[in-house]
Amino acid sequence: MIKYIIIVFLLAFSALFSGLTLGLMSLNSAELKRKISLGNKNAAKIYPVREKGNLLLTTLLIGNVAVNSTLAVFLGSIASGVFASIIATGLIAMLGEIAPQAIFSRFALSVGARTVWIVKILIIIIYPVAFPIAWLLNKTLGEEITNVYSKRELIKIIEEHEDMEASDVDADEERIIKGALTFSDKRVREVMTPKKFVKMLEASKKIDEDFLESVSHSRLPVYKGGQDNIVGILYIDQLLGKKNLGKTVGQVANKKVFFVNESKNLDAVLNTFLQTHHHLFVVNDKKGNMTGVISLEDILEEILRTEIRDEIDKYKERERV
Question: Do the Cβ atoms of 234 and 219 come closer than 8 Å?
C-alpha cells in the first residue's frame, strides 16, 4: 500500500516538474516585466524566479529526472518485464508529461503564480547541484535573447489581435497602428501633391476685390520669374480685411519658405513640421526644381490611413473632370 502512495506522490511531482518546465520557461522575462509594469500580480510573483532562467531550468530538469528515475524503480517493484515497462511509460507519459504540459502551456501565468512557492523551495533544496550547472550555462551561453519583432511581425500580431473576440483592439486602432508602423518607410514623392495640381501665384499679382473673391486655398506658394523659384507662401488669413488691397502678392506673402527633398522619409519630414510649426513645405528634386508640395495633412493621412479632404483634393477632382 505504501508503494502505491509513493508512486502517486512521485507522479504528482513528475507532473509538476514537467508542467513547470514548459510553462515557466515559455514565459519570456521581458514579457513578464512588461506585464508587471501594467500591474499584473501573477507576473510579479513569477519574475524573481524566471529572471534566473538557467538556474530555474536546471532545477526543474534535475528534479524531473530524479523523480522519473525513482518512479521507474517503484513501478518495477510492483511489476516486472515488458509489462512494467509499458506501465511506467504510460503513466509517466500521460500523467507526468502530456497532461501537465497541456495544462501549463495554456495557463502558465496563473498556474505558475500559484505554484511558484514550491519552485522556490525546490531551488533551495537542489541549489548545490543546480547552481554550478546554471553558472556554466550562463558563462557559455550568456544572457537570454529577448524577442525582437520586425515591423511586419508587429503588424501581423495586431491583425491577429483585432480578429480575436477577447481582444480590445478595434478596426480603427488596427488601421492607425499599421499606418504609424509603415509611414516612415515612405518618401515625400509618394504622398506629395504634384506640381500640376498645385495652385500657385505670381509675386507681382495685385490684390484687389476680384482676387479676394477668387481665393479658395488656405495656403498658396508664391513664385517670381518662374514656378521653380518659390519666394513665399501666401496664407488666407493675410487677406482678411482690406488692409492689403492694392499690394502685390509678393509684398504680403510670408517670406519664410521651407523646402524638402522629394526623396526624404516621411518621419523626418513630420519632425520638421513639428519643429517649424509650419503646415506646408515646397518639394524639390535633387536639381532644385520644384516638383510639388507636401502638407502636414498628407503625412497624417498616411498614419491614419484615411483621406483628409482639403481644397487641394477638390482642385485635383476638378482637374480630372
Answer: yes
Q: What are phi and psi of 15, to 5 degrees?
A: -65, -40
Of 21, 38, 220, 175, residue with least CA distance to 104: 21
For the chain, the straight-line distance linking the first and the last C-alpha, in angstroms and rounded, comes to: 94
Residues β-bridged to residue 226: 224
**Cα separation of 315 and 199, whole Å?**
8
| Residue pointed to by grid coordinates 529526472 | 65
| Model confidence pLDDT, tens digit, residues 225-254 | 888 999 999 988 888 777 888 899 999 999
Rounded CA separation 72/95 (Å): 14
Return the pLDDT at 315: 46
- Backbone φ and ψ for 13, nearest 5 degrees, come out as -70, -35
Please say whether the beta carbons of 189 and 289 come within 8 A. no
Contact 169, 162 (CB under 8 A): yes
Averaged pLDDT of the chain: 86
pTM: 0.66
Domains of the chain: 2-141 (no CATH), 151-183 (no CATH), 186-320 (3.10.580.10)
Q: Nine-digit cell at 140?
A: 557559455
Q: What φ, ψ does residue 182 adopt, rounded to 5°?
A: -115, -20
Strand order in the sheet with 193-194: 193-194, 290-295, 280-284, 259-261
The Cα–Cα gap between 204 and 210 comes to 16
- CB-CB contact of 315 with 255 (8 Å): no
Q: Which residues pair with 294 in a beta bridge?
A: 281
